[in-house]
Amino acid sequence: MRIRPAPPGTGIVFRRTDLDGFEIEAVSRNVARVSYATSLMKQGVLISTTEHLLSAFIGMGIDNAMVELDNLELPILDGSAQPFVQMIQKAGIRKQRRPRQYLKIRRELEWREGNKFIAVYPSDSYAVSYSINFPHPLIGKETFQVQLSNGSYLQQIAAARTFGSRQDEQAMRNMGLIRGASRENCIVLTQDGIENGPLRFPDEFVRHKVLDLVGDLALLGKQILGKVIADRAGHAMHTALVSRILRDQTLWEEVTVSANPEESAVVSAAQAAAAAPF
């Protein structure tokens, strides 16, 4: 994988270098299968496991980038967004002259599916509150709230790793999932503990859910101004929220924050690159 600079207004675009440079925009209309990861598809061409990199872009304030891949799946690296953040920091970020356009939430949207809930409310900043409830002695009920500003993403979210159960491993592999999963790129849960501790945060599990949510909401195509509350939601509800927001234009408006204007940003020409570890 290689990340290249892109002109203002480009957004985030994936390019399959193994398929004559076929391009897939990271926007809601291209969302494909959503189960244990968020995938994009356009004209039958697939990009899988996009959420961690998209989350890093939002957390770093990157609006425009061209992501080149020579395969259908992004590198999982250590299972968090931190390696992507570090590569972007090393490459450098260049401000662009065009002011950043935000998608500002004007009125609330909320819905429930069984015990799952997700909602978005008006706010002058981007805030997330996430709750999970897993029947595991190390997890149980966890809630985490964060304002995605002033370096909060880098300090509190980026390093949180994905996780999975050793108990479920074989069934998921039989379905063609988690083909690259290992102890190096996810937290492996046993029946009553973890195989590869220690945790990076006491509540690393719910923090990773926030990381996923931020990545999935990047498919709005713009950074948002709104407060998102999720309870046991998951990728399918995250991306459904994106679709519902975009379908109803009375829910939002495009704005430029004039009081403290932020310019759009792009990964610098130094580029950032990653090789898949599997």
Topology readout:
Layout: E1 2-4, E2 12-16, E3 22-25, E4 31-34, E5 38-42, E6 45-47, H1 51-60, E7 65-69, H2 82-91, E8 93-99, E9 102-105, E10 109-113, E11 116-122, E12 126-134, E13 140-147, H3 152-156, E14 163-165, H4 169-174, E15 187-189, H5 204-217, E16 224-231, H6 235-247, E17 252-255, E18 263-267, E19 272-273
Helix pairs in contact: 1-2, 1-5, 5-6
Binding site for Zn(2+): 52, 208, 212
GO biological process, one term: lipid A biosynthetic process
Pathway: Glycolipid biosynthesis; lipid IV(A) biosynthesis; lipid IV(A) from (3R)-3-hydroxytetradecanoyl-[acyl-carrier-protein] and UDP-N-acetyl-alpha-D-glucosamine: step 2/6
Rounded radius of gyration (Å): 18 Å
Number of helical segments? 6
Compressed to H and E, one letter per element, the order equals EEEEEEHEHEEEEEEHEHEHEHEEE
Major sheet characteristics:
7 strands, mixed
Total domains, how many?
1
Q: Which architecture per CATH? A: 2-Layer Sandwich
Percentage beta strand: 25-35%
CATH topology: the name is: lpxc deacetylase, domain 1
* Helix-strand category: alpha+beta
Tell me, rounded to a whole number, the average pLDDT.
Answer: 89
Binding site for Zn(2+): 52, 208, 212
InterPro entries: Ribosomal_Su5_D2-typ_SF, UDP-acyl_GlcNac_deAcase, UDP-acyl_GlcNac_deAcase_C, UDP-acyl_N-AcGlcN_deAcase_N
Pathway: Glycolipid biosynthesis; lipid IV(A) biosynthesis; lipid IV(A) from (3R)-3-hydroxytetradecanoyl-[acyl-carrier-protein] and UDP-N-acetyl-alpha-D-glucosamine: step 2/6
Keywords: Hydrolase, Lipid A biosynthesis, Lipid biosynthesis, Lipid metabolism, Metal-binding, Zinc
